[in-house]
Every structure is written in structure tokens, then in C-alpha cells.
Amino acid sequence: MDIIPDNFIDPKQLRSLELRNLKEILRLINQLINDIARKYDPGTGL
Length: 46
What we know:
This protein is mainly α. The protein has a domain at about 15-40. About 55% of the residues lie in helices and about 0% in strands. It has one helix spanning about 15-40. The radius of gyration is 17 Å and the shape is flat. About 0% of the residues are buried.
């Protein structure tokens, strides 16, 4: 029996600390993506 892997994380199954950490990590990733987009946006002239 093969199990197909997935990256789904059910937030209802997380402890409070785990959920806070996940939210913080996602916030930081979003900030990083925005910073990279701003830095390499051809319209900014940087």
C-alpha cells in the first residue's frame, strides 16, 4: 500500500505554540518574498 505524501497541515491539530510558530514563519516568508520582489522589480530602478 503506497501512501501519497502531502504537505497539508491541519491547524486544528496544532498546539497553541505550534500554531503561533507557523503563523510567524509564514509572516516572515511573506515579508521575504515582498522584499525580494521590491529589490528586483524592474520598475524601481534599483
